[in-house]
Amino acid sequence: MLPSCLCSLRRLGAGGPQTPPPQCLQPGGRGLLVGGVATRRNHAPWAGPAPRLFSGSSKSRLGLASGLECDLATNLVGQPLVRQQVMKGVKEFLQNPSPAKPLVMSFHGSTGTGKTYVSSMLVRHLFQGGLRSPYVHHFSPIVHFPHAEHIEQYKENLKRWIQGNLTSCGRSAFLFDEMDKMHPGLIDVIMPFLGPSWVVYGTNYRKAIFIFISNAGGEQINEMTLDLWRAHRDREEISLQDAESAISKAVFENPQSGFWKSGIINEHLIDFVVPFLPLKHHHVKQCVVNELVQQGLEVRQGMVQEVADSIPYFPEEEKIFSSTGCKTVASRISFFF
Ligand SMILES: Nc1ncnc2c1ncn2[C@@H]1O[C@H](COP(=O)(O)OP(=O)(O)OP(=O)(O)O)[C@@H](O)[C@H]1O
Ligand SMILES: [Mg+2]
User: Could you tell me which residues are annotated as the binding site for ATP?
Assistant: First the structure.
């Protein structure tokens, strides 16, 4: 049994009262009520087992990072830049017993390139129970913020939810999936939690992790990768700096990105912009092999090739990159097996 949560305000010595749970938390109840839909949580977030990442020293926390590193190296296909960026962020953050600000990462790329996959892997290594941990909060706009006319209520609820959970446990993780479907302006309500201050609303929040996930910027990444291919250069030679500025510009200017004219971009509150590159045919084949192994099925090269060939590729003429990444691999296998 892990020790109880070590991340409380007392431990951090940040002062401030342990405020009672705000209204958006339903003690023993049904979770966050936004858009008339309750989150999957069925018990109060402060009542669950301690997140792994709170136990022990920075050395043992780095052990968790090694597990993540190994998992990424073994199972994530064709995304060395993602591995590099995510591990840099996570290691630096876990090593530091007193981070100056929360870790804020933003994942960008086209469909099926591994964004949700990596975010699940990350929380699985850092939090007991992974996505089901009471300290991991996963938001999907379609589920949690479906109605544009309720945006003011969502803002209030979201702010209270984050504040309440960080009061309960500073080492919480907040995942915002499908950011491109988020109503413009909604996400800026969490800005005060992302910056390098000591406390906000009486809550210490510097040990939290925020991950934004989005397709926005994917076109720009694909375009840059195609340019490299046309110049006979490796797709992984993409410059992180160039990718970051292209993505930031794209999401800031796109009303459908969730970050439209967002202060989060303007104030440079994102520590790591993580570009997911489009996957090539041989990457898709690797995904097929991984999936077969995971399902305990025999790996037959002919069948691996057939599944990979059945997926659409772009550009139309050259067919270099998978249009759906590895997203449909699992469902296609049953047709070919
Ligand atoms: N780079 C990758 N390496 C290994 N497997 C991958 C990779 N990308 C995708 N997959 C496989 O495809 C599935 C779907 O990927 P995932 O859900 O992460 O895509 P996504 O980038 O989040 O797409 P979307 O933008 O549509 O949400 C994963 O569960 C995983 O099995
Ligand atoms: Mg996804």
Answer: 109-116
